[in-house]
Amino acid sequence: MAGPVKTEAVVLRSMRYGEADRILHVYTPHRGRMSAIAKGVRRTRSRFGGRLEPFFRLRMDLHEGRGELLTVTGAQTVDAYPRLRGNARALDGAARACDAVGRLFETSEPHPGVFNLLCRHLALLDEQASGVNTGRSPISARASALAFRLKLLLAAGLAPQLGACACCGEREHLVGFSGSAGGVVCGACEAASFPLGEAAYGFMTEALARSLTEAPDAPDPALGQVERAISETLEHHAHLRLMGATARAS
User: Does one domain contain both 219 and 140?
Assistant: First the structure.
């Protein structure tokens, strides 16, 4: 319905448009992903300043007309996550997280839990970039990113079957993972699967059960298996291929 819209939002992406405008892709708690135009934002005296940049959490005032693009009429910063902007790894992690949310939840269907999950992940990246000792055991950037993606799968209804073989229901001798079957598989059903070790299995079950702040860690080979499991699940059941959870070391 046309008219004013007030909402919190995280800016997923910001693109130049015309001489002075920007097109924004934002994620909101009650209207899912939205696209809006911010007119004149690139002018020196723009009232928006720099707050319509990616990864800002905002309170936005928009006008909804007949077209697909809403128009930004006001924006106030809730959290700029300023420390992650000075850390290349945290900035890259924020970009990959926002890309995953924007592509996996690309419609206007409301997912307040996904919005809150994204905000929490950005806050953790900002916290980790600060280098301040929080009293929590530090985990690798890759483990944190994969825990976030597993929770996105859960929110999308794509969480892998981990309690029993996804093919036959066997609860013991779970030795592999099948993206097409949607979860772990036993020795009798392991055709077309790849090996899933105990460390990878433990990481997945704990990451889904715990909050992001209590995400587990695991050795890099196990995290590689987890990333493959997530990728194959998305490819088979959402026909989607995301960027890697983290940048590859050069």
Answer: yes
